[in-house]
Design a protein that fits this description.
three-stranded antiparallel beta sheet, 5 helices
Length: about 160
């Protein structure tokens, strides 16, 4: 991808280093636009969101994920969106440091299952719902701390 090479060249020049080009894998699933796999030196891109938001991927997602890789090689393990990442985005790559995308995600949103606690309705993903069914996990409300139960919340 041309934008990856462009941003990598910027980083190589500004940091006076020679970073290898990371692999681009088009297999990111779910609502994440992309992820950086540090040890594998690869960027995973969501192909559905890429097709729906091509220019934003070029301008935002590719440099965002590349910045994670560059920060890891330069500073080691640090907070994912900390000061080092923000500096890499803004000072080195010249891109605003935004943590999340604003893409429409209806086309990639998975089914959810209704669960309730004492105070509100919750929606669990298919993965979490299946873990509950298999008895592998329990989930609690962060507000009232009660165990989530399958079903709709009925306000009284």
């Amino acid at each position: 991808m041309r934008s990856l090479r462009h941003f990598l060249q910027l980083a190589n020049e500004k940091l006076e280093r020679r970073f290898d080009e990371p692999s681009l894998i088009y297999q990111q699933r779910g609502t994440a636009a992309g992820t950086a796999w540090l040890e594998k030196w690869e960027i995973r891109i969501n192909p559905v969101l890429l097709l729906e938001n091509q220019q934003a991927f070029v301008d935002e997602v590719v440099p965002h994920e590349l910045a994670h890789l560059l920060v890891w090689k330069t500073f080691g393990r640090v907070p994912p969106h900390g000061k080092e990442w923000k500096w890499m985005m803004e000072s080195v790559l010249g891109v605003p440091a935004r943590r999340t995308h604003q893409f429409e995600i209806d086309s990639v949103r998975s089914n959810t299952f209704p669960y309730r606690c004492r105070c509100q309705q919750h929606q669990l993903t298919v993965r979490r719902h299946n873990r509950v069914l298999r008895g592998e996990s329990e989930y609690r409300c962060v507000h009232c701390k009660s165990l989530l139960q399958p079903g709709e919340f009925l306000a009284t």
